[in-house]
Amino acid sequence: MAEKKIRIIIAKPGLDGHDRGAKVVARALRDAGMEVIYLGLQQTPEDIVTAAVQEDADFIGLSSLAGAHMTHFFRVLALLKDNDASDILVVGGGIIPEDDKEQLLASGVAAIFDPGTTTSDIIGRIENLAAGRPGA
After folding, report:
1. What whole-number distance in Å separates Cα of residue 20 and Cα of residue 17?
2. What is the pLDDT of residue 19?
């Protein structure tokens, strides 16, 4: 029996118009054998969670460079809870200050990737999280 592929939604919430990094990560995850659904720019948290539930995603990957990460990430987490979909893990990347990163991780974001994180590190971390490995 074939191993289930990791399914991940990649999205840019809000008005942030810079999507190069998100596209690079989406392609790297796809090339690593994951099923990637790229929603693109200017997505609402509601649209992101709806897509994740409909697509039976394992992860939501949010990319934020415009400074609204706290609002969007917290809203996605709340909507997942409201939709009984808290088993979908949220990961994020972008320009996120250290203090905000700590709050997001404490609130349930599974991982945050800083600019310059290698795609192989992102792939490895998501695979570890999907496998439920200690220290993921």
Report:
1. 9
2. 81
Token readout for 104 is: 């997001």
The string of pLDDT tens digits covering residues 65-74 is 777 788 899 9
Q: Nearest Cα to 25, choosing from 55, 52, 60, 51?
A: 60
Is 74:107 a contact under the CB 8 Å cutoff?
Answer: yes
Chain centroid to Cα 58, Å, comes to: 10
Q: Are 34 and 58 in contact (CB under 8 A)?
A: no
Burial category of 100 from C-beta neighbours within 10 Å (exposed 0-12, middle 13-18, buried 19 and up): middle
What is the Cα–Cα distance from 5 to 35, expressed in whole angstroms?
6
Residue 121 CA to residue 123 CA, distance in Å, equals: 5
Q: What predicted TM-score, i.e. pTM, was given to this entire model?
A: 0.92
Please give the structure tokens belonging to residue 16. Answer: 């942030």
